[in-house]
Structure formats: C-alpha cells, structure tokens
Amino acid sequence: MAKKKKDDSEDNGVDPLDALFAKETFADPIEMAELQAGYRVFSTGFPHLDMTMGFRDPILFNMGAPERSVFESFGDNSSLKTALKENLTINIIRTDPTFVVLVMDIEESTARRWDSYNLTPQEKRRIKHINCCNGNTDDDLKTFEDACSLVFEAVKDRRVKAVFIDSVAAIPTQELLMDANGNTRSLTDNEKMGARATMLGKFIRKFHAVNRCAILWMINQTTEAITTGFSHPQNARYAKKTTGGRFMEFASQIRIEHKVTPIETETDNELSEAKLLLGWNASFRLMKNKFCNPTSGRTAKGKFYFSDFTEVGKKFHDSIDGVGFDKTNQILMITEYLTRKGFIKPEEGVEKKAGGNWAIQGHNEKGLLPALSYIKENPDVKHKLEMLMYDNANNAFSPLSPKDEEPPIETIF
Known about the structure:
By secondary structure, this protein is α/β, with parallel strands linked by helices. The protein has helices spanning about 10, 15-20, 30-35, 45-55, 80-95, 120-125, 145-155, 175, 195-210, 245-250, 325-340, 370-375, 380-390, 395; strands at about 40, 65, 70-75, 100-105, 125-130, 160-165, 215-225, 240, 255-265, 275-290, 300-305, 310, 315, 325, 350, 355-360, 365. The longest helix has 16 residues, at about 195-210.
C-alpha cells in the first residue's frame, strides 16, 4: 500500500487550515498593507452622525464613513441628502491630494453647485461628474448602463474613494428608453415591472467584485404607497417606501433615514405674518449598520442653516459656523454631555456652569456665542475636544452604561 504523502506545511509547524486561508493568497502586498493599516474613514461634516457609524480613521483618528462600504441615504424631498453628499465629497478630496470622487448626476448636473464651496482648481478636477440620462449635451451618457461601465473601470483604481448616485429614483433603464430595435419608446409604453430593481442588483453585485477602496453612496427618495389611504389601518407601516426594490435594503451596509423640520423666526414686518426660514433641524437615523453592532436605531441630531441672517444688533440664531451644519455647536454640546456624565475630566472637557458660563478646558466664557467663538478661533482647542468626543463615542450612546442615568445623547440638542 502506498504511503500517504505528508503535507509540507506540517513539517514547517504551520496549521494546514491557516495556510489554506492565508490572507496573502487573496491580495497583493500593497493592498495587504492597506488592510493591516485599517480602512480610511471620511467625515460627513456632521460629528454626531460620524459618531453613530462607529468607525475611526487609523491616520487622522476622526470618525465617519469607512471606505469599501455601501450606503443608502433616503428621505423626503429637501431633507439634506445632497448637502450631506457634498460635505462628504469635500472632506474626501481634502484628506489627500490624490483622492478622487465620482459623482453620477442622474436628475440634473450639479457641477455648478461646487462654485459656492471655494474649491481650488485642483480640487475641482478631482471631482469627476458623470452626467447620464440627461441628454442635455453630446457628452452626456444616454443610459445608466453606460455610466455603470465607466464606474466599473474607474473603481479599480485605489485613488477613487467614493461613487455617488443622485438619485436612484430617477434612474431609467435601457428598456424604458429604447425597444429591442433601438427605437425610442413613447410615454404610453409600459416598463417591465422590477426592471430598475433588477438592474441595480446586478450593478451592486459587480461593484463589490471590482471595487478596491471606494464608498458607494446611493441617494434615494421615499414615496407613499398608492393604496395607503384605502387599505386597512394595520398596513400603515407600509405608508412610505423607497424606490429601487428590496435588494437595496439588503445590499446596503448602512442605511440613513433623513428627517428635517424647519427653523423659523418672526419677521419685523408688521404688515406680514410670514416667517423667515433660517434652516432645518436635521435628524439622521441609522436604520441599519452592519459594521458596528449595536448601532442600528441611533439618531444623530443637529442644525443646518441657510445663512447667518445677521442684522444690526440682532442675530436670529446661535450658529457660529454660519452656513451649513453647526459642527462647532455639536462639539461643544457633546463634550459637555460627556464631561457631565464623568467620561471626560472637567479640566480637559467642557462644563456648563450657573449664569450661562462655560468652562472650556479651564478657560471661562460667559454666554453660548462667546464659547462657540472661542472654540472656533482656537483650532488646537477644537481639535482636542473633537478627539475627546470620538474617544468616548461608545460611552455617549451606550444605554447600558452605569453612569447613563439620563436619556442618550441624541436628546440633548
């Protein structure tokens, strides 16, 4: 009887199972070094939302959206979905001078919107716009399938860090645009049921196969079911749904639901009862998070302002950041909460004292606006408070903490 050949891995003292599943067999040396260093993480510009994701950058130590992940951002119309996309895009291209972002514009071209962000010409060149399905110019791609082919080739490059689809609800399939003979369909022709969902499913599967480092961020809309008003009350939970089929819910690793309420103030015009719209009270709820358990169901809250609305001797709101998300205000409030709960030492954090006084790392300021101004004018203090906030992110949200006698942090805003 022939003697069974002995495995060489046993002679070397290596477990055959470990040798079979060695990571070196699945990635090249450069990619292995990136995996050992950790996934890069990019801030959304909304610190409270960054904390809910549970990921921290291995180099800059900030929190936010990790690379090689799939996001679905959905909500009603004008619920800050595009604003969050643009903040994340700017933070990515400013993290490293080689990073590139792909923006797939389906509803309309958003290239002119970037002029208001004071980007340099080099930064604008690293935001690549894919204008598909518009047909406004000869350079526009006519179908979503053509745009997908371009994306699949681009994400093989490690410099591409994000792909944004704005939005899923506006994606037309080739079957909707043209028939089998290549002729344009009329509006009376019916689209095959589930055609968009089937195409998106194929796109996401192939994206996972060819992607190296990019984030796939899909913006979606919520719509009301047609039969909601005529169905049984027990079906009220089906009142709103997202487009693109159920597969997007399964394939997305993080799903963010957007909800906003208006921030209004009375005007000085005695002849008019109209109110001045200053911005939105933003609420971002993580409906799903497969990266960091248990973070599903966490809600990040803050404010988004359209403008300063400053008049002589009067200021309508307390935001020191001006237009956009109130990042400085969030840092102040969250670190004060963590200091009050005992997770941060008083001499290192923020204390709110009687009489509207704020003690910021031993420095006293009277009033909220002076405290916010002090943090914004001192980048070192702001950075230290931000790092302390991220160090205690789990403590801020954990409902099982023995020191958490009050509701979680999402209720303090």
